[in-house]
Amino acid sequence: NILKQAGVDTSSIKEECTFTVDPYSYEITVDGVDEETKVLMQNALNVGNNGKNLYKHIYYCSTQDGCESSQVTEESKMKYEAYHQVYSYTGYELDKLEEKNGTYYTESGENILDLVDSAVESSGKVPKEFKQQMNNWIHDLVSTISTRGWNNVPDMTLSILYGKSSLKDMNQLITYQYEADRMNRQWYSVL
Q1: What is the DSSP letter of 111?
Q2: What is the Cα–Cα distance from 175 to 148, expressed in whole angstroms?
Q3: Dihedral angle sign, alpha carbons of residues 77, 72, 187, 165
Q4: By its UniProt entry, which Pfam families does this protein fall under (predicted)?
């Protein structure tokens, strides 16, 4: 257990606490515990790809049929995709760029979509016959987010409850829960 290895006494967690994952940095923050425990937990959790893996887990569970999670919206997913697609191809973070005319510009005045086009074209990740389709998709994402305004579109920040060695989904109709100490998997719990 990551938390026990870091010296966190999980039995001292009286109620459930919340793990929240930033959609861009994948940093995990902890709420609902005292400050000392919070720091220990965050230091233990924010190692390697833990944040990204937890984010992907929460997203997967939040988007299953019938879950109707309030954490994931079409707009917030579009913003998340725009950010990560641009970052993966160019290394630029959309939220740090100048937003104007339905796109974003670097400090040197380059249109981020031109940089994406070049990166996709030279990338071995996308088969030749799909490069234009990939460019069009990223253009649509970036244009939509820029037109609406970065700060006017909600972030897809995801949270999950933790308590008594178990994780439990929140803010959705169907929840998934895993209790490590009981080897009990309760996959569907309808609220």
Answers
A1: B
A2: 32
A3: positive
A4: DUF4885
Sequence spans of domains, the chain = 2-69+156-190, 74-152
For 134-183, list the strands marked E by DSSP. Answer: 158-163, 166-168, 174-179
Structure pTM?
0.85
Tokens coding 138: 């990223």
For 98, what's the count of Cα atoms within 13 Å in the CB-facing half-sphere?
9
Residue 69 contacts residue 160 (beta carbons within 8 Å): no
| pLDDT tens-digit map of 146-187 | 999 999 999 999 999 888 767 777 776 666 555 544 444 444
Give residues with Cβ within 8 angstroms of 46, minimum separation 6: 27, 28
Residues with Cβ < 8 Å from 81, sequence gap 6 or more? 141
Is 102 in contact with 146 (CB distance < 8 Å)? yes
